[in-house]
């Protein structure tokens, strides 16, 4: 899973850092190849079958799913263990909120909101959402530049998270 987060952070760095104009943004339905559906800001467009992004503001959403051992679901971890397992290599990491008792589509889920500084010195804010299916784990990563707190993903982060659903297995 660290490879997924590394890929997401690399994509953020590759994307343009230009500021967004005053375009009106709404939330639109997105259905991913991984069986995840959610609402994302309309200024984010599909980049690959694993990601959506706004190339002007560097907002990014990445998606993954995979088979896993139900005895080792990440949603069972405490905040300390989750940070040690998945976020320990982040500089200036600040946990904004951590919830590992949330239900999404009736499944145990974990939502961790955080901020950190990338290896390139860029301040980022976002969330990791992990959903335990019967035999599959779904992972959503939503990231934006901390300096873009007025951007569409920053303003709609909670609405995006609240809209997440996964297909029944």
Topology:
Layout: H1 2-14, E1 27-31, E2 36-41, E3 45-48, E4 51-54, E5 59-67, H2 79-87, E6 91-104, E7 107-117, E8 123-132, E9 136-145, H3 152-162, E10 165-166
Notes on the structure:
- The strands form two sheets. A seven-stranded antiparallel β-sheet has the order 3-4-5-9-8-7-6, with helices on both faces. It has a three-stranded antiparallel β-sheet with strand order 1-2-10.
- It has one domain (2-16, 28-166): Protein Transport Mog1p, Chain A (3-Layer(aba) Sandwich), CATH 3.40.1000.10.
- The protein has helices at residues 2-14, 79-87, 152-162, and strands at 27-31, 36-41, 45-48, 51-54, 59-67, 91-104, 107-117, 123-132, 136-145, 165-166.
- A hairpin with a 2-residue loop joins strand 3 and strand 4.
- It is of the alpha+beta class.
- 20% of the residues lie in helices and 44% in strands.
- It has three helices and ten strands.
- Mean pLDDT is 86; it is low at 2-21.
Number of helices: 3
Mean pLDDT: 86
CATH architecture: 3-Layer(aba) Sandwich
| Assigned CATH superfamily | Mog1/PsbP, alpha/beta/alpha sandwich
Brief descriptors of the model:
169 residues, alpha+beta, Protein Transport Mog1p, Chain A, seven-stranded antiparallel sheet, three-stranded antiparallel sheet, 3 helices, 10 strands, globular
Short description:
The protein has 169 residues and is an alpha+beta fold. The chain has helices at 2-14, 79-87, 152-162; strands at 27-31, 36-41, 45-48, 51-54, 59-67, 91-104, 107-117, 123-132, 136-145, 165-166. Strand 6 (91-104) and strand 7 form a beta hairpin.
